[in-house]
Amino acid sequence: xxxxxxxxxxNYFYLGLIIILLIYLIIFFLxxxxxxxxxxxxxxxxxxxxxxxxxxxxxxxLKAKEKLIGTYYFKSQKxxxxxxxxxxxxxKLKLAGxxxxxxxxxxxxxxxxxxxxxxxxxxFIINIKELTLLNKNTNLFxxxxxFSFKRTNNPYLRTFILGDNSLLAKNILKxxxxxxxxxxxxxxxxxxxxxxxILLKLLTKIDEKAKYLIVSIILxxxxxxxxxxxxxxxxxxFFILFSINKIYYFYIKPVQIYIIVxxxxxxxxxxxxxxxxxxxxxxxxxxxxxxxxxxxSYKHYFTKLLITSLISFLVSIPITIYNxxxxxxxxxxxxxxxxxxxxxxxxxxxLISFFIKPVTYLLNIFIYILEKSSNILAHISYFKFxxxxxxxxxxILYICLIVIALLGLSKKKYYYTIPVIITLIIxxxxxxxxxxxxxxxxxxxxxxxxxxxxxxxxxxxxxxGKMTYNTSKWQVTKNxxxxxxxxxxxxxxxxxxxxxxxxxxxxxxFDHLGEALTLIQKFKVKxxxxxxxxxxxxxxxxxxxxxxxxxxxxxxxxxxxxxxFFSLNNDLGEENDSSLVFYVTIKNKKILLMxxxxxxxxxxxxxxxxxxxxxxxxxxxxxxxxxxxxxFLKTIKPKLALISAGKDNKFGHPNQEIIDRFQxxxxxxxxxxxxxxxxxxx
Length: 682
What we know:
By secondary structure, the protein is α/β, with parallel strands linked by helices.
């Protein structure tokens, strides 16, 4: 024991651990990783480890030769009810269907689902055609997991007990992210500490070694139950190692225990390095260990909480900026309210509710307070700052400056924080110095959305929108996919764009303005341009939501940076015919944005304007045969045609006749469903 203590107290031991870990990580990431399956696979047998039902959509996590995800759409409410009644976690299923690779991001900087799943060891998604139950589960672990899963049908019970936030509404999660408190909804050291304290109190009459052993075994079981979540793994390992340290008097320092936990965690799964929860958990916990004495030098609870919140905020800056491109300064103070609310009230009530169901009624009162307050505060935008995606060296610089700032804080030399503040100010105002001009046509499926950026001025032409059809109540999904929230706004933030100077809505079709309301509610839009003619219900809602809606008639002109916009079309009676058409110039380049303009619109434009050759044509109506007449193309002679169309869309856009016309006239063309988002720099 003395020899072991001597080894564990040696700094060389921990240096050796770090070197071994680095060698292991290099070997792991340089080694090829392949799937055990082939894309031609049609049938697979495996154990269901988790599932989620949203409306008529079923998503299954399967454990077979490797982890797989399957998606299935129930054909009837009865079929859905039968599945819920008969299928449990741990059951053996046979899935028949087609294997597909997870999608990659077709717009630069945005979330790469393929890479995300690969880091979890998932290489394929199964589009399930037929699902067959082979064997019911008899495994005790899966029986406990299934019981816990079905017992936690309340979104917050599922979140705080199993670490699964899939039942939480996306708009609620977005509010927590906007406030900078989303870390409170991951099972963390705070939750494990509370749970272990409760268990230790219940076992006070038992021998100390036995007591810590029992709690350690329970926590290891819980770790298995939640699927080795990084934050839970860290907290459980910390508890076990601290317990051993206490019982056997090893006198290992907290920082040394931290190194052991870090090494074990990354040996278990090196891909934790790319998990945001892991980065938050380990970086913040390291800072709180190092500056623990400084925090404890303050006596008052809320003063300690404020200092803890400030340290956590500073440490999380590079992680938050890199992943979310936004900081909310007020999150330092929001934590003073939300940390006690969640840690002292909501989490304990969630634990009790798991065993005593009626307590859920009390839990729901505090959840109501949590959600209502977060919804109000999330709309305060004065202290939110957007940061463009930067080079890796910038984030390394942040880390260095934050270390200096923290050392200064611990000595009460607050001016040490000035370099961090200056760097943040420069970073958030980067676009004031960035003179790059560009156009990007977003890959948004069947619809249109184009961004033009110049001299920190931004114009978005249309928002796109996915059509939804009348369905029965049982088929309706709670979390609908939003193009604006998943593509447009994240991209704007990645580019450091804080506002749109103009939002041009070419006409009233849903695939062009379907997400306009969401955009103007979630992002700053100064002016909105709409076309002439009668308004549909959505356009009326947009006019109610914004006071800056302008009807852009023929000859309407405005400038945005180096871009000049001139409106060509007018009201021709029909929605597509009356689509706004803008002639845009920048640095001797000429761009024609056609919306869904038809042959009739083209004829009207040719009769009213003497159009010369254009460099870029945004093709009308997604390459439909109702647009891009031969006469029109010969008149404007575009060098490049851009077409926005969805993959395998039911309209057959772009029409082959139009493609043949481009080829015969020697016009280069790009289609989003083939090449993804299209970016052109000027």
